[in-house]
Write a structure and sequence with these properties.
The protein is an all-alpha fold. It has two helices and no strands. It is flat and about 40 Å long.
Length: 63
């Protein structure tokens, strides 16, 4: 339980620092940080976590 609380604090800190340097990407930041924080609790091995960052409408969806 304490470990989950520590991860929540880390999640909030990560989101705040990313949101201060990346503009207009709030939803993407929330999704990435949520999944990064959950990774230690998965029982199966995660093979890859891909993130595509860039300006809007530059074709990230098709990568």
């Amino acid at each position: 339980m304490q470990e989950e609380k520590n991860y929540r604090v880390l999640n909030i800190s990560l989101e705040e620092s990313l949101k201060s340097s990346l503009f207009d990407q709030d939803f993407a930041i929330e999704m990435v940080s949520k999944h990064l924080i959950k990774m230690p609790f998965f029982h199966s091995k995660i093979r890859a976590l891909l993130t595509f960052m860039g300006v809007p409408n530059c074709g990230k969806r098709y990568m």
